[in-house]
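Our preliminary data section would be incomplete without showing what the modeling component actually yields. Below, a chain of 245 amino acids is followed by its predicted structure, encoded as tokens that our downstream tools consume directly.
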Amino acid sequence: MALLLGALTHLLFAAGVLAMMIAMFHGMSQTFGQVPSPGSWAVNALLIIQFPLVHSLLLTPRGTRWLARMVPGPHGRTLTTTTYALIAAVQLLLLFTLWTPSGIVWWQSEGVAFWMLCGAYALAWLMLTKASFDAGVEVQSGALGWMSMLAATKPRFPDMPTLGLFRVIRQPIYVAFALTLWTVPVWTPDQLMLAVSFTAYCLLAPKLKERRFLKRYGERFRRYQSAVPYALPTPGSFIWRRGRD
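Predicted structure:
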């Protein structure tokens, strides 16, 4: 059961991320939604809202209890990270496959500009991947749950992330995610709507995350918080060292 659930989660997660990469690369102009206008804008707005709303709600204490109940039997609590990642994967697939394109293309890069933006887009995704590993890829991917179930142990969450990109800024995952939104080579009203909405989410949602970290780690996180900037690196942000942790 653990292996099957893990395989399903990672396949859907990969499919969701791939759908996101391809859809945004084309400025959300080549997705499969076919809702007629003007209803398409309302449906697209709902597709945007459902991701941050559910994503954040499931991280609350009540949301965690809901996650534990979604898998019947004694393993629900162990599998919460896997269930969370599985739901996120389905949300991404819904958003980036069922979006209805407006059919309007404002700008499509060509020549040198196209290749420069492709490079920037790839770097943003590499930064997102690096930040996910720095934060604990087993949690980010949902592997912690099913691997703990397979080993018949309680999930052991990684420690507070302070190394790698977390030495430079406190929220590298959200910053990298925001960068993927703005480095695309095709710009449409659809992409702008997505980029503005999710950038706002990337700036505000980590505030809730930091509240949870402050409760969990207390003064230790407060010291880290005072030494490392939130989203924009500064020369002083490179001073964080393992010894200070």
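The mean pLDDT is 93. Strands lie at 107-108, 186-187. Preliminary results of this kind motivate Aim 1 of the renewal.
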